[in-house]
Amino acid sequence: MSSFLTSLSEKYDFHNEDQGTDIVLDYFNQSSKPYDDLIENLLQLIQSTNNHSANIINCLICSFLRWKNLLNKSLSPPIIDENIINSFLSESLPIACLPDFIEIFQIKKEYLINLIKPLLILPTNSNEYKRSLNIVVKLNYQLDFEPNEILLPLILNSKDHLIDVYLDDKSQYEEYLIGLLNHLYDNGGKKLQDILSNEFKIKTPTFNKKTLSKLAVRYWNLYGNEQNDKYPNLAILQSKRTLGYLINVRYNGLTDEKTMSDECWNELVTDIVQGNDDLSEYLIEILADRDDIVAMKYWMAQLDRPYYSLPTWVQQYIHNKQNSEPKASTPNQTTTETSTVDHYKIPLETHEIIFVDSMSNYERLLDGLFKNNNEEILIGFDCEWKPVFNNTSTSKQRISVMQIALSNEVYLLDLLNFFHTCDPETIQQRLANRLFDDDHATLLCYGVRTDASMLIASYPIFDRALYSGKTLLDLSLVQNELAHVNRDIFPHVTTNNKMLAKDKGLSELVRLCFGKPLNKSEQCSNWERRPLRNAQVLYAEATIARQIDENFHETTDNNINQPPISADTTRPSGEVKRPQQMKFVVDNMLHGLGKELRVAGCDTVILGDNDPHTDAIRYARAENRIILSRGAPYNLLRSHTLEGRCWQPPLNVPAKQQCAAVLNYFNVKVLPEDIFSRCTLCNCENFAIVGGRDMRILWCKTNNYSLEDLEPDLLNYQPEMIDMNRRTLTGGTVPLVLTGLTLRNYRSYEEFYVCSRCGKVYWQGGHWRRRIVRNEFITESEPISEDSDDGIVFYDAESTM
Q1: Which side of the chain, N or C, has fewer Cβ within a 10 Å radius?
Q2: DSSP label at 20?
Q3: Looking at 73-87, 386-400, 432-446, 725-739, which range is the least confident one?
Q4: Can you give the residue ranges of the Mut7-C RNAse domain (predicted)?
Q5: Predicted confidence (pLDDT) at residue 322 exceeds the cutoff of 60
Q6: Are residue 615 and residue 709 in the same domain, yes or no?
Q7: Model pLDDT, residue 785
Q8: Considering only CA atoms, which of 463, 453, 454 is closest in space to residue 433?
Q9: Three-state secondary-structure class, residue 266
Q10: How many domains does the chain divide into?
């Protein structure tokens, strides 16, 4: 390289980028042929093996543009060899530099588009195609190409990842994509071949129809924002997929525990197809495919679809079936088998169920909740909402009914039509406080996490629902613990694996206690309809009343001999300990705390989401670990461990504050060398040190960047520590996990640390430096205040070492 480039490279070696910019500006000020010098220096850098080539190229181009705009506004570019310009654009220059390069040499849009077009007919998995697509996105040229030049081939080949690149998180392209997909599915997709061939000139298009419909629905769910009137064809396509799911539920029994009653199924289907001729015809067609003439006749009558209005093949099917048609034609006589399961009947009368849709009934509910305000009260809790089958984050899914059960009454609170009319600061807040923030109330529920999340999304005033610990008892946790520790305590336990697989959840818990499962066939019904059907009311009663019924408590309590539980107030001795001396096992409700402790250097086992809480006892006994848990599981675990070996961190605080409290309570002193001395993912303490050049090559391969574009100086470099074909450490078998680095910072580090067990890659970035500053002086004598910024902070988005 020239002395100028060598000097510039030295500035980058010492991270003196600002001085480098000054050198470039001074260089062009003194140049008699600045454009020619720019081209010559770029050619040298492209052929160079210098580690900083890409950064220097960017510096040269940006600084030249700055110099030109500030000092030489009237200077016009000379005529440059077209082959060199084309090579720079299509192959050599980093894409990030192209807008400035184009401005410097005043390259016209038409010229660029004509240069790019031939590259877009190459295979989509080629580096040339990917670079061309990224250039189009970088220059914001997407709409300057016809659909059949970029977007349609990606759609037909289901290249979702490249479509996402094309969209570039910009609403104008998202709307363009949705509009194009909506057009393709005109007339239910029956014109798809004609549209592609005649309108977009794609001869003999090949695609997988099922895969294409999945892709269309995926992007409709992401960007359609439920604009059914604007994109009616995609809305119908989504509804057809939902109908297909419901048909499979009915005829193939896909829902396991969530089987639907005939009323429930008919209700959901009616809600989808009513008033839409395309959907009603589609329903009758798929019923014909299922050879269910009885259901066809029923829906033809329900939807007012006479025989002559149906497709010819359906008419022929009906004609052929007439001689063998059953006499009755009600939906209950379809081919679906009637359930023979004997379900448990709740011994409560219907008049004990109060539907709360008025202020008078709401006041009755509050009176029941606050009747004995200073006495312990058990409250059964559950929620119901209309099911949505499209898995879209934009769906306006709302909780419809909240079930609240007291000792002799069950209240069904109409959240959808009544509760939102109540004053949130007084009337709504009073209910929220009693349910989720009252020391005298114990909320009994089953699988509360989903209910609580939906409740908060619908009514943020219930935001304590997810953080409640002392006032909430999730019976699913109790069931899970007892099933693993002492299943024989249930009076109706069975070794029949088929029965165990069929009946799950609360239904199975009721069967274990009373010998019969609950009927769950109304679970997926339309909970937004008013009035609720009687079957819905009885289902809502059944799912909540079991949780507080006295017979239920007698059945379980008589079989469980629990030792008394007292507060764990014994504090460890005053001896200062180092993180290497500590061994914890963290319950699966405290994942964040577990990772924070690993960051601090403590040997910490974290239970998986599906692991029983009692696994903590096994780890504690086998490996001499201290258990960290909370809420009801803490009480259970503490009763099985020695005093002082099970501790409950502070509730309702962030993980970093919990970690600081644990370190302070157990007198653990954290020094700088302890920070990130363990892998936060797998708890391993052994790391391999890998050089920056190896990791830069791995990053380019992982993110589908060509070395020619970003790292031409490493084309002939042979990695020392990484097997690039297998993407493992040399001689290792564990794939490397490299996340968090970006195009902006992947070249900023010369040393990386790879976990030898799980392959996670770490580096000493900004987070590592902040950890050192915040944690150096934590000792047993320095308690952490509520508003302090000390403590361990875990950043999962960017791994730092």
Answers
A1: N
A2: H
A3: 386-400
A4: 582-684, 742-770
A5: yes
A6: no
A7: 37
A8: 463
A9: helix
A10: 5
